Amino acid sequence: MTTRSVRALSGALKPLFSPRSPQGYVVAVCHQTHKSTYTAPPARYGGRHTVTLIPGDGIGPELAKHVCELFRFCCVPVDFEVVNVDSTETSEDDINNAIMAIRRNGVALKGNIETNHNLPPSYKSRNSLLRTTLDLYASVMHCQSLPGVRTQHRNIDIITIRENTEGEYSSLEHENVPGVVESLKIITRTKSLRIADYAFRTAREKGRRRVTAVHKANIMKLGDGLFLECCKEVASGYPEITFDSMIVDNTTMQLVSRPQQFDVMVMPNLYGNVVSNVCAGLVGGPGLVPGANYGENYAVFETGTRNTGKSIANRNTANPTAMLLASCLLLDHLKLHGYASMIRKAILSTITDSRVRSHRCYMQYVGGIQLLLLRPALYFDITLNMSSPLCSSCTLLIWEVRAPHLKWSSPSWMQSRALDLAHRGTRNQMTVRLYL
Amino acid sequence: MALYRVLSSSPNKPANALQSTLLNMQETIREPMVQDPTQFDVLVMPNLYGDILSDLCAGLIGGLGVTPSGNIGANGVAIFESVHGTAPDIAGKDLANPTALLLSAVMMLRHMGLHGHAKKIETACFDTIRDRKVLTKDLGGNSKCSEFTEAICQRMKDMD
């Protein structure tokens, strides 16, 4: 470090070392030699990730705007590449651009794109096209009873895993005889094994005890029979997890009378749609549950129930929880766990403590999250210009104050933010953020 | 809330706009979040969705033990049935709840045009359940099937 910069730094630090400064300690982090438990996220460029953002229709654009605002406020190292998809266009250029952007970035956050039923059958659902092209084979929804949300049933904790690329959504229909339509439901061994394996792996990773396969194999003996057989085959490789199956109509009945009996549920596409929507309704509705679509190489996050919310668009009444929690899932996927848990805690605190309900207080809700996030982080930035390039050998000084009256003070979070800034520093410039 | 004190030196009075905004947010809005099945009246749908949704709705009203159903065909041909299982574990023990089959019979009477009889039996059945004095085990009572049926018959006699 140059003399000038050292003087500037020590000058800035002088009041902090004075006897009247609050009790605290200095943590010196030398980028090269210090062995930290912190693992850097798989950053793309300059420590920042680029994520495709597809606002969609209805309430999508306003929710996307609020996610961006929240990320900007929290200084999350994520940049959004916004790709608009016009659902009224019959050409597939828009959705192909979106798919290309997701291929480039690997991750996306999307709102639902409306599918107009009046368009000809050759017009494929944009959402479906996106999922099948990118082979996002697993749609995962974690429905949990949220504290502070009053529902008829309590203590619900169900993970629904839905096969996302085949089944009744194959869009293969024909009308050989006028007035008689045949619709093909495709069930393949490969995809059934894949989704079953995904379900059991997820159950094992999350410490879950039971996987229930939902089917209608008594009627669709070949199709759902194959699915069930594949689930049983995969189950034999996971002896610690109980596997059972339930017919879909009984499942929905059990869900509305005794939902606590379910743990992880795996099912083909259509039953997954129905069951996951029922589960979302049980925990409080479409505004609360996030959804994730995972593939081998890509991940797309959205609201769990995939509604456009056309009737409440642009009225400032939509519940942003689902989209904000989806953005937390996105951050977890990017291994930015600190930011994810910070935002998640803020959201849950807002729902619980301030009892803000979406109908009237949407702006206050998002403002509430921002205010909750602002409280523990009091800091000031010092930008130092150095004549000699320092790059990876720069030293950061972080002043961390123990503040017992703060509800949550997360040292690792503060440390991770400081290190993110270190990555951002250019060769001749270093920004030091001092926390008070 | 302790969090507010971080921002002001004197914890007891709101020192700035930030704190007063936070205090305004404390206003509790007690809107229950319930999903509302009562918004629906008649639902018509294809076979599979009907299978799923009918069982879902049965779960909402108390289960298959109280749900009647009918299968209507052309030329007035119809079969009315209860949709619960055969329950072999309680068969022959006078423990079953006859409500589902009874209300299915009421549907049958309506189909046949015997609305007066249908109304009487239905009212008697609903009143017996509402009273909660004579209920079978699945509805939370201790009575036998025959006792429950006897109670309904008694009500009908009292109605005449």
UniProtKB/TrEMBL annotation, chain A:
The record's similarity note reads:
Belongs to the isocitrate and isopropylmalate dehydrogenases family.
Which GO biological-process labels does this protein carry? isocitrate metabolic process; tricarboxylic acid cycle
Q: Please provide, alphabetically and separated by semicolons, the GO molecular function terms listed in this UniProt record.
A: magnesium ion binding; NAD binding; oxidoreductase activity, acting on the CH-OH group of donors, NAD or NADP as acceptor
Q: What is the designated name of this protein?
A: Isocitrate dehydrogenase [NAD] subunit, mitochondrial
Mainly localized where? mitochondrion
Q: Which GO terms describe its cellular component?
A: mitochondrion
Q: Key word Mitochondrion present in the record?
A: yes
Q: Which organism is it from?
A: Oreochromis niloticus
Q: Which NCBIfam families match?
A: mito_nad_idh (TIGR00175)
Q: Which UniProt keywords apply?
A: Mitochondrion, Transit peptide, Tricarboxylic acid cycle
Automatic annotation (TrEMBL), chain B:
What InterPro entries does the record tag this protein with?
A: IsoCit/isopropylmalate_DH_CS, IsoPropMal-DH-like_dom
The positions making up the signal sequence are none
The Swiss-Prot or TrEMBL record annotates one GO molecular function as:
NAD binding
Record keywords: Oxidoreductase, Tricarboxylic acid cycle
Source species of the chain:
Oreochromis niloticus
> Which transformation does this protein catalyse, written as a reaction?
D-threo-isocitrate + NAD(+) = 2-oxoglutarate + CO2 + NADH
Q: Please give the biological process terms from Gene Ontology that the record holds.
A: isocitrate metabolic process; tricarboxylic acid cycle
Q: Which gene encodes it?
A: IDH3A
Give any Gene Ontology cellular component: mitochondrion
PANTHER family listed in its UniProt record: DECARBOXYLATING DEHYDROGENASES-ISOCITRATE, ISOPROPYLMALATE, TARTRATE, ISOCITRATE DEHYDROGENASE [NAD] SUBUNIT ALPHA, MITOCHONDRIAL
Spell out the family assignment given in the record's similarity comment. Belongs to the isocitrate and isopropylmalate dehydrogenases family.
Stated EC number for the protein is 1.1.1.41
**Could you tell me what this protein is called?**
Isocitrate dehydrogenase [NAD] subunit alpha, mitochondrial
What sort of enzyme, by top EC class, is this?
oxidoreductase
Instruction: Write down the Gene3D superfamilies for this protein, in alphabetical order.
Output: Isopropylmalate Dehydrogenase (3.40.718.10)
For whether the record's keyword set contains Metal-binding, the answer is no
